[in-house]
Amino acid sequence: MHHDIEDHPDLKDAAWIRGANRRAKREIRRQRGRARWRRHSGKVVSAIALLVIAGVLFGFHRAGKFGDVSLPDVQLPHSGVNVEVPFAKTPAEQWPEGEKGIVAPDGNPAYGQVRQALVAARLDPAVLTEHKPDRFLAMLAPPAREHVAKDVTGWVTRLKQGTKLLPNGIRVSGKMTLGEKDGYPAVTADYVFAYAFEPPEPGKLTDQMEIVAAVREQVTYAITPEGLWPSDSSGYQYSIACQAAKDGFLAPQFTEPRKQGVGLPGQEKKYFSPDGEIPTENTCD
């Protein structure tokens, strides 16, 4: 005799169906705890998962093996960014933290002086959050200090007010080479500094690069008796908030509405590399 599926006798077992639904719903609640949901996508996934689990329960019920079954581990999609490992899956993931990334090739004191200047300009909390470049400026020769002090934009990193770095939120990669300029020893420093910012709502972001901003600086410091004399400086910022950059501050993408096509997506490796020529593209155009 032909039966439609809805007329199958097993599906008329009301007690079993109620129990199966309860077990399926409990499983869904457990699986939901493992993932963060974004907007309506979770509703679709949970509905699919419910059908899968109910189907498994029904199959084992018919086979008389329900007591031996362990439910499948349904993998739900992950959303949001990783604030526990902020550089995960970015080019800076394996870079050393902070000052550990600025390594002198040898014990030459010229390297030591330039290393201190880089730390003071890019890593010192006084300049990052308080916007006080005094330590960096004090290392420069007086004429250079007077010139740089008029506009420190580009010479130091100042975080936009209201933003905050995540713990251990700076990674550094680059190199120093020793040469000569105007009769003085000169060190050329070429580094990329990556900063990971704390987002107010990590679950609403979709790309790890939305919380990571990069600054590359290539500069030559002549070591003079009066202090460091910077020259031949160039650089860029990548994966940033553009208006903040125009105002002289560093901020991540999530602090401003993102413009279509801005940021040169997919070119992270190029812009996080301290090797080769300085890119000429403006990532905010």
Q: Which CATH first-tier class of the largest domain would you pick?
A: Alpha Beta
Number of helices: 8
Flag low-confidence runs.
1-6, 33-58
Our Rg estimate from Cα atoms comes to: 28 Å
Which sheet architecture does the biggest sheet show? 4 strands, antiparallel
Structural class of the secondary structure composition? alpha+beta
Distance between the termini: 72 Å
Shape: elongated
Walkthrough of the structure:
- This protein is of the alpha+beta class and 285 residues long.
- The protein has two domains: 5-68, no CATH class; 98-271, Nuclear Transport Factor 2, Chain: A (Roll).
- 29% of the residues lie in helices and 20% in strands.
- The chain is built from eight helices and four strands.
- It has a four-stranded antiparallel sheet with strand order 1-2-3-4, with helices on one face.
- A hairpin with a 2-residue loop joins strand 1 (165-181) and strand 2 (184-197).
- Helix 1 (14-32) crosses helix 2.
- The chain starts with 13 loop residues before the first helix and ends in a 14-residue tail after the last helix.
- Residues 256-285 are annotated as: Disordered.
Comma- or semicolon-separated keywords:
disordered N terminus; elongated; alpha+beta; 20% strand; 29% helix; 8 helices; four-stranded antiparallel beta sheet; Nuclear Transport Factor 2, Chain: A; 285 residues; 2 domains
Show the helix and strand layout.
Blueprint: H1 14-32, H2 41-63, H3 109-122, H4 125-128, H5 134-138, H6 142-150, E1 165-181, E2 184-197, E3 212-224, E4 227-238, H7 242-246, H8 268-271
Antiparallel strand pairs: 1-2, 2-3, 3-4
Helix pairs in contact: 1-2
